[in-house]
Amino acid sequence: MSIPSFQARQRGAALIVALMVFALCAALLVSIEKEGQLFYQRMANTFIGSQTYAYLLGAEQLAFNLLKLDNELDAESENPKDTLLEVWADTSPPYPLDGGGYLLGQLLDLEGRFNLNWLAGREAAGEGAGSLTLEQRIFVRLLLTLRNEDGPLMDRFQAIAIVNAIGDWIDGDAIPRPQGAEDLQYQSKQPPYRAANQLMQSPSELMAVEGMSWSVYQQLAPLVTIWPDEGTKINIHTMPRQLLQALPGGQELDPRTEADAESLMELREQMGFASIDEFLADPYFQENDAAQLREILTEQSNTFLLQAEASIANRPQRLYSVISRKGGQMTVLRRTQGSTL
Ligand SMILES: [Ca+2]
Ligand SMILES: [Ca+2]
Q: Fewest beta carbons within 10 Å, which of 86, 105, 253, 294?
């Protein structure tokens, strides 16, 4: 081995080591930059998320102010009402936010809906055991108004079965009603579960009840509620058309047609109803026991649902807040993000 060739090999080895060190440094730098970008992205996401949520809470405050204002106006009125012609019910266009985002919100009256927890009742023995209560008959009719392009989503037999299954779901006992469902039915499902045997805590519990399907639930969800938990009535000024179709009928279980309810809906949109008595005096209710219906109707509401959406950097977020204004005091009863209640 000659000395020059030994030196040349040494130089070669040093070059390889230098190249390896360079490659290692380059790989480290790329990795550090990637981590840095991820860190920056995470920080930006957190910041945008917090900022959007702050806007959504702002929408809640705005809703409080509108409901307070309405409460003050109602306090000065001789005939206080909560109607869809009032300011709180306005659907305002999206409010533009800095940087191209938007904020929008809508207040809905939950006391214009059917309260599912009404269905726990049973017709008193002696008045025809096994028959349905006034509220249960209204709910059967409401179920029969649900339709798709092929016609009604269910027949009367299925509607009564759902009403009884909901009653069993809520009532404290384990004795099934006719066509109802208690633990026995739910424990044979995969996975097995048990009946709640208490008042519903969310309308989405409906999906666990025997006989309920996704298509029925989707149509029913905007028509039903579980709030307020006491003193529930239906506001004649805000109830949806399907509920108006379901309201009259006495002992009958067929709902009125859309066309039947239309003239009353038009009257409400144009002039509003003067009072519950005037509303019930309409020939639409002639076959009914007006005194019995009057018991479950009201002209005022104190439980509302705010549906708000805010978007910054094309990342929309939603907030659903159930707001109570009992005694003029604003309280958030439930707040959920992303999905409906
Ligand atoms: Ca009002
Ligand atoms: Ca039960």
A: 294
Query: For 77, how many CA atoms within 13 A lie in the half-sphere containing its CB?
Result: 12
User: Which ligand sits nearest to residue 81's alpha carbon?
Assistant: 1
Residues within 5 Å of ion ligand 2 by Cβ? 168, 171, 195, 197
Q: Which two tokens stand for residue 193?
A: 């579960």
The model carries a pTM of: 0.86
Whole-number Å distance, alpha carbon 210 to ligand 1 midpoint, is: 38
| Cα within 13 Å of Cα(119), Cβ side | 32
45-110+303-337 placed in CATH 3.30.1300.30: yes
User: At the topology level of CATH, where does 113-298 sit?
Assistant: Ribonucleotide Reductase Protein R1; domain 1 (1.10.40)
Ion ligand 1: residue ranges with CB closer than 5 A: 70, 74, 82
Domain ranges of the chain: 45-110+303-337, 113-298
Give 197 Cα–ligand 2 centroid separation in angstroms: 5
Give, as one character, the DSSP assignment of residue 188: T
User: What is the CA(199)–ligand 2 centre distance, in A?
Assistant: 10
Q: Report how far apart, in Å, the C-alpha atoms of 1 and of each of 16, 27, 132, 199, 220 are.
A: 21, 38, 109, 95, 93
Ligand nearest to the CA of 325: 1
